[in-house]
Design brief:
By secondary structure, this protein is an alpha+beta fold. It is 39% helix and 18% strand. It has a 5-stranded antiparallel beta sheet, with helices on one face. It has a 3-stranded antiparallel beta sheet with strand order 6-8-9, covered by helices on one side.
Protein backbone atom coordinates (compact mmCIF):
# COMPACT_ATOMS: atom_id res chain seq x y z
CA UNK A 1 0.00 0.00 0.00
CA UNK A 2 1.22 3.49 -0.79
CA UNK A 3 1.14 6.18 1.83
CA UNK A 4 0.11 9.10 -0.35
CA UNK A 5 -3.55 8.12 -0.80
CA UNK A 6 -3.68 7.16 2.86
CA UNK A 7 -3.22 10.81 3.83
CA UNK A 8 -6.66 12.21 4.84
CA UNK A 9 -5.72 15.51 3.24
CA UNK A 10 -5.54 14.01 -0.23
CA UNK A 11 -8.23 13.08 -2.75
CA UNK A 12 -11.96 12.90 -1.91
CA UNK A 13 -13.18 9.73 -0.25
CA UNK A 14 -15.54 8.91 -3.14
CA UNK A 15 -12.92 8.29 -5.83
CA UNK A 16 -10.96 5.23 -6.91
CA UNK A 17 -7.22 4.95 -7.32
CA UNK A 18 -4.81 2.23 -8.43
CA UNK A 19 -2.17 2.49 -5.71
CA UNK A 20 0.18 -0.15 -7.09
CA UNK A 21 -0.17 -2.88 -9.69
CA UNK A 22 2.11 -5.53 -11.10
CA UNK A 23 1.79 -9.07 -12.40
CA UNK A 24 1.33 -10.76 -9.03
CA UNK A 25 -0.42 -8.13 -6.89
CA UNK A 26 -2.48 -4.96 -7.06
CA UNK A 27 -3.78 -2.52 -4.46
CA UNK A 28 -6.79 -0.31 -5.12
CA UNK A 29 -8.20 2.48 -3.00
CA UNK A 30 -11.96 2.97 -3.04
CA UNK A 31 -12.73 5.89 -0.77
CA UNK A 32 -11.41 4.93 2.67
CA UNK A 33 -11.04 1.24 1.80
CA UNK A 34 -7.93 -0.42 0.37
CA UNK A 35 -8.39 -3.61 -1.62
CA UNK A 36 -5.32 -5.82 -1.88
CA UNK A 37 -5.58 -8.40 -4.64
CA UNK A 38 -2.98 -11.18 -4.83
CA UNK A 39 -2.65 -14.11 -7.21
CA UNK A 40 -1.39 -16.26 -4.31
CA UNK A 41 -3.88 -16.77 -1.50
CA UNK A 42 -0.99 -17.75 0.76
CA UNK A 43 0.34 -14.21 0.58
CA UNK A 44 -3.00 -12.81 1.72
CA UNK A 45 -3.16 -15.36 4.55
CA UNK A 46 0.36 -14.43 5.69
CA UNK A 47 -0.47 -10.72 5.69
CA UNK A 48 -3.64 -11.31 7.71
CA UNK A 49 -1.66 -13.39 10.22
CA UNK A 50 0.94 -10.63 10.58
CA UNK A 51 -1.68 -7.90 11.09
CA UNK A 52 -3.49 -9.97 13.70
CA UNK A 53 -0.29 -10.87 15.58
CA UNK A 54 1.47 -7.49 15.49
CA UNK A 55 1.25 -5.72 18.89
CA UNK A 56 1.37 -2.31 17.18
CA UNK A 57 -1.21 -0.09 15.43
CA UNK A 58 -2.26 -1.71 12.13
CA UNK A 59 -5.04 -1.23 9.58
CA UNK A 60 -8.41 -2.71 10.51
CA UNK A 61 -9.29 -5.78 8.44
CA UNK A 62 -12.77 -5.13 7.04
CA UNK A 63 -13.22 -8.42 5.21
CA UNK A 64 -11.36 -11.14 3.38
CA UNK A 65 -12.41 -13.19 0.39
CA UNK A 66 -10.39 -15.50 -1.88
CA UNK A 67 -7.40 -13.51 -3.18
CA UNK A 68 -8.76 -10.18 -1.86
CA UNK A 69 -8.17 -8.39 1.43
CA UNK A 70 -10.06 -5.20 2.38
CA UNK A 71 -8.39 -2.84 4.85
CA UNK A 72 -9.51 0.44 6.39
CA UNK A 73 -7.52 3.66 6.04
CA UNK A 74 -5.35 4.37 9.06
CA UNK A 75 -5.41 7.84 10.68
CA UNK A 76 -2.50 10.25 10.78
CA UNK A 77 0.07 11.31 8.22
CA UNK A 78 3.13 9.56 6.84
CA UNK A 79 6.36 9.84 8.82
CA UNK A 80 7.96 11.10 5.61
CA UNK A 81 8.97 10.18 2.08
CA UNK A 82 12.27 9.21 0.55
CA UNK A 83 14.06 12.20 -0.93
CA UNK A 84 12.09 14.76 1.10
CA UNK A 85 12.67 16.22 4.58
CA UNK A 86 10.47 14.53 7.14
CA UNK A 87 7.75 16.78 8.59
CA UNK A 88 7.69 14.71 11.78
CA UNK A 89 9.53 15.88 14.91
CA UNK A 90 12.35 13.92 16.53
CA UNK A 91 9.91 12.76 19.21
CA UNK A 92 7.78 11.06 16.54
CA UNK A 93 10.80 9.19 15.16
CA UNK A 94 11.66 8.08 18.70
CA UNK A 95 8.09 6.90 19.22
CA UNK A 96 8.35 4.86 16.02
CA UNK A 97 11.56 3.32 17.32
CA UNK A 98 9.80 2.23 20.50
CA UNK A 99 6.92 0.71 18.52
CA UNK A 100 9.32 -1.17 16.25
CA UNK A 101 11.10 -2.57 19.29
CA UNK A 102 7.76 -3.82 20.59
CA UNK A 103 7.15 -5.55 17.25
CA UNK A 104 10.60 -7.15 17.24
CA UNK A 105 10.07 -8.55 20.74
CA UNK A 106 6.67 -10.08 19.92
CA UNK A 107 6.02 -13.77 19.13
CA UNK A 108 6.94 -14.34 15.49
CA UNK A 109 4.62 -15.26 12.60
CA UNK A 110 4.96 -18.59 10.83
CA UNK A 111 6.39 -17.26 7.57
CA UNK A 112 10.15 -17.17 7.15
CA UNK A 113 11.57 -14.05 5.51
CA UNK A 114 14.13 -14.16 2.72
CA UNK A 115 17.23 -16.14 3.67
CA UNK A 116 20.65 -14.50 3.71
CA UNK A 117 21.70 -16.96 1.00
CA UNK A 118 18.91 -15.67 -1.24
CA UNK A 119 19.75 -12.03 -0.45
CA UNK A 120 23.42 -12.64 -1.20
CA UNK A 121 22.56 -14.27 -4.54
CA UNK A 122 20.29 -11.36 -5.49
CA UNK A 123 22.95 -8.87 -4.46
CA UNK A 124 25.61 -10.59 -6.57
CA UNK A 125 23.24 -10.63 -9.54
CA UNK A 126 22.34 -6.97 -9.21
CA UNK A 127 25.95 -5.85 -8.81
CA UNK A 128 26.85 -7.81 -11.95
CA UNK A 129 23.90 -6.32 -13.86
CA UNK A 130 24.76 -2.79 -12.71
CA UNK A 131 28.24 -3.11 -14.23
CA UNK A 132 26.50 -3.20 -17.64
CA UNK A 133 24.70 0.11 -17.02
CA UNK A 134 25.82 3.69 -16.55
CA UNK A 135 23.68 4.14 -13.43
CA UNK A 136 26.61 3.94 -11.00
CA UNK A 137 30.30 4.66 -11.30
CA UNK A 138 32.53 1.57 -10.91
CA UNK A 139 34.00 3.05 -7.73
CA UNK A 140 30.65 3.65 -6.03
CA UNK A 141 29.37 0.23 -7.14
CA UNK A 142 32.44 -1.57 -5.82
CA UNK A 143 32.40 0.26 -2.49
CA UNK A 144 28.63 -0.15 -2.14
CA UNK A 145 28.91 -3.89 -2.74
CA UNK A 146 31.68 -4.16 -0.17
CA UNK A 147 29.64 -2.31 2.45
CA UNK A 148 26.48 -4.29 1.63
CA UNK A 149 28.12 -7.61 2.34
CA UNK A 150 28.56 -6.51 5.95
CA UNK A 151 24.81 -7.01 6.41
CA UNK A 152 24.89 -10.67 5.41
CA UNK A 153 25.65 -12.13 8.81
CA UNK A 154 23.26 -14.40 10.68
CA UNK A 155 21.38 -12.92 13.62
CA UNK A 156 18.60 -13.91 15.97
CA UNK A 157 15.36 -13.68 13.98
CA UNK A 158 12.56 -11.38 15.10
CA UNK A 159 9.04 -10.47 14.00
CA UNK A 160 10.11 -8.36 11.01
CA UNK A 161 7.75 -6.06 9.11
CA UNK A 162 9.87 -6.56 6.01
CA UNK A 163 9.00 -3.34 4.16
CA UNK A 164 9.10 -0.67 6.86
CA UNK A 165 9.44 2.32 4.55
CA UNK A 166 8.88 5.59 6.31
CA UNK A 167 5.78 6.22 4.18
CA UNK A 168 4.30 2.99 5.56
CA UNK A 169 4.39 4.48 9.07
CA UNK A 170 1.73 7.00 10.15
CA UNK A 171 1.88 9.37 13.07
CA UNK A 172 -0.17 12.09 14.70
CA UNK A 173 2.19 14.40 16.59
CA UNK A 174 4.47 12.03 18.45
CA UNK A 175 1.98 9.15 18.48
CA UNK A 176 2.19 6.22 16.04
CA UNK A 177 -1.28 5.75 14.57
CA UNK A 178 -0.68 2.93 12.11
CA UNK A 179 1.81 0.81 10.19
CA UNK A 180 0.62 -0.42 6.81
CA UNK A 181 1.62 -2.97 4.15
CA UNK A 182 2.45 -6.19 5.99
CA UNK A 183 2.79 -8.22 2.80
CA UNK A 184 6.50 -8.92 3.43
CA UNK A 185 6.23 -9.65 7.17
CA UNK A 186 7.91 -12.72 8.57
CA UNK A 187 10.86 -13.94 10.61
CA UNK A 188 13.95 -11.92 9.82
CA UNK A 189 16.69 -9.46 10.77
CA UNK A 190 15.65 -6.61 13.06
CA UNK A 191 18.27 -4.33 11.53
CA UNK A 192 16.72 -4.74 8.08
CA UNK A 193 13.59 -3.03 9.42
CA UNK A 194 15.59 -0.25 11.07
CA UNK A 195 17.58 0.31 7.89
CA UNK A 196 14.46 0.36 5.71
CA UNK A 197 12.88 2.93 8.04
CA UNK A 198 15.87 5.28 8.03
CA UNK A 199 17.36 4.88 4.54
CA UNK A 200 17.85 8.34 3.06
CA UNK A 201 17.16 9.87 6.48
CA UNK A 202 20.37 9.12 8.33
CA UNK A 203 19.85 12.26 10.41
CA UNK A 204 16.97 10.47 12.19
CA UNK A 205 18.79 7.22 13.00
CA UNK A 206 19.74 8.55 16.45
CA UNK A 207 16.11 9.52 17.09
CA UNK A 208 14.85 6.05 16.14
CA UNK A 209 17.47 4.34 18.29
CA UNK A 210 16.63 6.61 21.23
CA UNK A 211 13.19 5.00 21.23
CA UNK A 212 14.28 1.54 20.10
CA UNK A 213 16.94 1.07 22.78
CA UNK A 214 20.45 -0.34 22.79
CA UNK A 215 22.12 -3.31 21.20
CA UNK A 216 22.05 -2.00 17.63
CA UNK A 217 25.05 -2.42 15.34
CA UNK A 218 25.01 0.84 13.38
CA UNK A 219 27.48 -0.47 10.80
CA UNK A 220 25.07 -3.27 9.92
CA UNK A 221 22.21 -0.77 9.62
CA UNK A 222 24.34 1.14 7.10
CA UNK A 223 25.19 -2.13 5.37
CA UNK A 224 21.46 -2.84 4.92
CA UNK A 225 21.09 0.68 3.46
CA UNK A 226 23.59 -0.39 0.81
CA UNK A 227 21.79 -3.69 0.19
CA UNK A 228 18.41 -2.01 -0.26
CA UNK A 229 19.89 0.64 -2.55
CA UNK A 230 21.75 -1.80 -4.78
CA UNK A 231 18.76 -4.11 -5.08
CA UNK A 232 16.40 -1.25 -5.97
CA UNK A 233 18.27 0.89 -8.50
CA UNK A 234 17.66 -1.05 -11.70
CA UNK A 235 14.03 -1.82 -10.83
CA UNK A 236 13.31 1.84 -10.16
CA UNK A 237 15.00 2.96 -13.37
CA UNK A 238 13.12 0.35 -15.40
CA UNK A 239 9.73 1.29 -13.93
CA UNK A 240 9.82 5.03 -14.49
CA UNK A 241 11.29 6.15 -11.16
CA UNK A 242 14.50 8.08 -10.64
CA UNK A 243 16.99 6.35 -8.30
CA UNK A 244 19.29 9.36 -8.77
CA UNK A 245 16.79 11.83 -7.28
CA UNK A 246 18.06 13.80 -4.27
CA UNK A 247 18.12 11.54 -1.22
CA UNK A 248 17.26 8.42 -3.20
CA UNK A 249 19.18 5.17 -3.62
CA UNK A 250 22.13 6.44 -5.64
CA UNK A 251 22.64 9.35 -3.25
CA UNK A 252 22.59 6.88 -0.36
CA UNK A 253 25.33 4.78 -1.97
CA UNK A 254 27.45 7.84 -2.76
CA UNK A 255 27.21 9.02 0.84
CA UNK A 256 28.19 5.57 2.12
CA UNK A 257 31.08 5.31 -0.32
Amino acid sequence: MSSSPNDPGNAPASDLEIVVAHQARATLRVGDVFLKIDSEQGNIDAEVEAIELAPVPTPTILWQKPNVLALARVPGTALGRLGEPSPAPASAWAAVGAVVRRLHEAPMPARQGASLVDVAARLDGECEALTRTDLLSPEVLARGGEIARGALRSSRPVFMHGDLQLDHVFVDGDQVTGIIDWSAAGRGDALFDLATLTIGHEEHLDDVLAGYGGGVDRDRVRAWWAVRSLLGIRWLAEHGFDPAAPGAEIDVLKSLA
